[in-house]
Amino acid sequence: MGSRLAAVSLPFFGLGSRSLAAASTSRVRPGDPAWPAPEKWKQLAEQVGGGLVEVRSPFAECIAAPTGAACAQFFKSAKNPYFLGDDVALTQTFGWVDAWKSSPSVYAVAARHTADVVAAVNFARENNVRLVVKGGGHSYQGTSNAADSLMVWTRRMNAITLHDAFVAQGCAASAAPVRAVSVGAGAIWAHVYDAVTTKAGGYVQGGGCMTVGVAGLIQSGGFGSFSKQYGLAAASLLEAEVVTADGEVRIANACSHPDLFWALKGGGGGSFGVVTRVTLRVHPLPEDFGAVNMTIKAASPAAFRKLVGLIVDFCAEHLVGPHWGEQIRFRPGDILRISMVFQGLTRGQAQAVWRPFMDAVDAAGDDFKVEFSPLKIVSTSAREFWAPTFIKRTLGFISRDDRPGAPPTNVFWPGDQGQAGQFLHGYSSTWLPAALLGPARRAELADALFAASRHWRVSLHLNKGLAGAPAEALAAARDTATNPAVLDAFCLAILGADEQPAYPGIAGHEPDVAAARLRRQAIGRAAGELRKRVPSAGSYVAESDYFEADWRNAFWGANYSRLVAVKDRYDPEGLFAVHHGLGSER
Ligand SMILES: Cc1cc2nc3c(=O)[nH]c(=O)nc-3n(C[C@H](O)[C@H](O)[C@H](O)COP(=O)(O)OP(=O)(O)OC[C@H]3O[C@@H](n4cnc5c(N)ncnc54)[C@H](O)[C@@H]3O)c2cc1C
Predict the structure, then answer these.
(1) Ligand 1 center to residue 46 CA distance, Å?
(2) In the predicted model, is pLDDT for residue 18 greater than 50?
(3) Which residue of 82, 124, 171, 567 is 20 to 30 Å from 290, comparing CA positions?
(4) Has residue 373 got a pLDDT over 90?
C-alpha cells in the first residue's frame, strides 16, 4: 500500500501554496484491521434502501471453470455492450496489457437517488475506503474500476426529462430560457438520442458510440459524429448536480460554483465529485444525416503515397467544415478507407462534393482500385438516424441488444461491437493542427501519414478536432477545460490495437502479451511519425495512451493549473483519484 504522501510542490505549474494540499493515497483494504466491520456495511445498506450490492465477478467464475458452459456463454455475451453495461462487476474494456485489468469492487451502491450517492461518498471518506465511480463503464484507461473499492454505480439513475425553456438555477438575470434535456448521470447516449431526437425532433450533442455513459463523456469533453457543427458535448452543458467529497450536493452552472462547472466540462471523469444529473442544451435538428463509405486499394506503396496525397488535398479543400465528421483511415496493405458522415447537405450535394476526388481516383487508372461500390453515399431523415427501424436493422446499419426482453431502444452501431470486451494492446491519439493542411505543409503531412502507415494503421477522426467549426461552437469549446489544442486541430489521429474478449488467468482466453508488446511498439513508432510534426502534442483524455508520459500537458495544456485549483477547492484530500486524473500525480 502507498503511504500518506508528503506535500509536494509543482513549481512548473506556477501554483501557490493552496495547491499543495497533501492527498491521502492510503486506503484500507479487506483484511486490514481498519476495514469497515459488517455492521457498518449493514448501516450503509439501510441508508441506500437495499441498493448496496456485494459484487460477484464473472471473471472469478471463469477462472475457476474456464472450460465450463457458463464461461463459454460469458465470452459470447461479452460481445453485447448492454450485457456488459448491466453487470456491476464488468467494464466495456476488459483491460490493457501491462496497464490494468478489469477488477470488481468489493461492494457497490447501485444508486437510484442523489441521497444514495451522498451516503456512499460519506461512507468512503469516513472509513478511508477506495471510492470508484462507474456510469457507462467505457473508460479505456480503466478509471471506473478498482479492486478492493466501494463503487458508486449510476446505471439506475437514468431519468430523461425535456424542457422547452430551461434556465440554470440562479441564472435568471443573465441567461435566456433555452430548450434543454436533464439526464440522470447513468444514462447512455442511445437512450438520450431516442428521447431527444427520435421522439422529440431535437438534437443533443453526445457521443458517437451509443453505449457510452452521459456523465463520463461530458467530463471527457466529448465528441459525436457531428461535433464539427455542434462542438464539444461538454460545451452544451448548462448545469450539473454534483456530490462533492464533503458529501454536499452542489448545483454547478455558470452562476453557481462556476469553477466546478468549468472543470466538469472536460476536466476528466472521477476527479471532482460524483455527477448525479446533467442538463444539456437541445439544438435544432437538421433535415438529413448521411454517410460516405468506400475503400480504395493502391497497387503499390508508391501508388499509396500518391493516394494519401490526394486525400490530404481533398480533405484540406472540402472536408474541414461543419458538414463533415468521422473518419479517414490508412490501413495496412496500402488501403484507404473512407467512413464519413455529413449533415446539412442533401445526398446530391454530398455526391457533388466527392466528385473531384473520385475523378482523380479514376484518372489514376490501375494505380487504385475502388473495392466497395464506386461511391457509397446514403442519407436518411435526421430524426431516424438513431432509431432502430426495421429497414436499418435488416440492412445491418444498426444492432440491438439481443437478450430476451431487452428494450427496443437498446441499440448500438455494429462498428462499435468490436470494442465490447476488448483487451487493449496499445493506443495513441494526437490532435493534428489545421496548419498541417496549409498548401506549404500538405506534402509533409502526407509523408508523415504514409510513414506512419508503414508501422501501424492510422485513423483521422475529423469530428474530434474543431478547426472549421462555426464560431459559436469554437467559443463554447474555449470555455471548457479541454486542451485548447482541440480548437486548431482539423482532426484527432487515433491509433489502436486490441484483441477480442480476453482476461488474464482464464485458461484459453489469456491475452496475447507478446503480440501486444510488439503492437504497442509499432503504434509508438507510427505515432512518432505524426508527433514529429506536432511539438507539444495534445491528446484527447478519454481516448489516449495509458502510458502517455506528458499527460497533464497532453490532456489539458494551459488549462491544467486552473483545474488543479478546482481540485484543491472541492477535493483537497484526494478522495476521487483516477489514473492520470487531476491531482493523481500526488
Ligand atoms: C467503445 C467506446 C467508444 C467510445 N466512443 C467515444 C465517442 O464517440 N466520443 C467520445 O468522445 N468518447 C468516446 N469514448 C470514450 C468515452 O467517452 C469515455 O471513456 C467516457 O469517459 C466514458 O464514459 P462512461 O460513463 O461510459 O464510462 P465510465 O468508465 O463509467 O466512466 C469514465 C470515467 O468517468 C467517471 N465517471 C463516470 N460517471 C461519473 C459520474 N457520474 N460522476 C463522476 N465521474 C464519473 C468514471 O469514474 C471514470 O473515471 C468511447 C469509449 C469506448 C470504450
Answers:
(1) 30
(2) no
(3) 82
(4) no
Place of cell 464461461: 71
Residue nearest to atom 15 of ligand 1 (CA): 542
Average pLDDT, the chain: 94
Closest CA to 577 of 15, 7, 24: 24
- CB burial of 421-440 (b: ≥16 within 10 Å; e: otherwise) equals bbbbbbbbbbbbbbebbeee
Given pLDDT bands bounded at 50, 70 and 90, which one contains residue 374?
Answer: low
Ligand 1 pocket: which of 90, 205, 209, 275 to mutate (most atoms <8 Å of CB)?
A: 209
Element holding 312 (H helix, E strand): helix 301-314
pLDDT tens digits along 530-576: 999 998 999 999 999 999 999 999 999 999 999 999 999 999 999 99
Cβ–Cβ under 8 Å, residues 468 and 321: yes
The pLDDT, as a whole number, for residue 323 is 98
Q: How far is the CA of 524 from the centre of ligand 1 (A)?
A: 24
Please answer whether residues 333 and 453 qualify as being in contact, where contact means their C-beta atoms are separated by less than 8 angstroms: no
Atom of ligand 1 nearest to the CA of 276: 41
CA of 303 to the centre of ligand 1 (A): 39
DSSP conformation letters of 179-242: EEEEEETT-BHHHHHIIIIITT-EE----SSTTSBHHHHHHH----TTHHHH--SGGGEEEEEE
pLDDT at 5 over 70: no
Could you identify the atom of ligand 1 that is nearest to the CA of residue 540?
11
Is residue 464 within 8 A of residue 541, CB to CB? The reply is no
If you take atom 17 of ligand 1, which residue's CA is the nearest one?
A: 217
Ligand 1 centroid from CA 142, angstroms: 10
Give the distance from CA 458 to its chain's centroid.
18
Q: Determine the distance separating the centroid of ligand 1 and the alpha carbon of 305, expressed in angstroms.
A: 36
Measured between alpha carbons, how far is residue 493 from residues 528, 534, 545 in Å?
12, 12, 12
Q: Specify the pLDDT at position 545.
A: 98
Residues contacting ligand 1 via CB (< 6 Å)? 92-93, 133-140, 143-144, 154, 185, 207-209, 212-213, 215-217, 219-220, 222-223, 269-270, 274-275, 416, 419, 542-543, 578
- Decide if 462 contacts 228 (C-beta within 8 A): yes
Greatest Cα-to-Cα distance within the chain, rounded to the nearest angstrom: 77
Q: How far is the CA of 383 from the centre of ligand 1 (A)?
A: 25
At residue 382, the 3 state secondary structure works out as helix
| Separation of alpha carbons 446 and 317, rounded Å | 15
pTM over 0.85? The answer is: yes
Rounded distance from Cα 207 to ligand 1 centre (Å) = 9
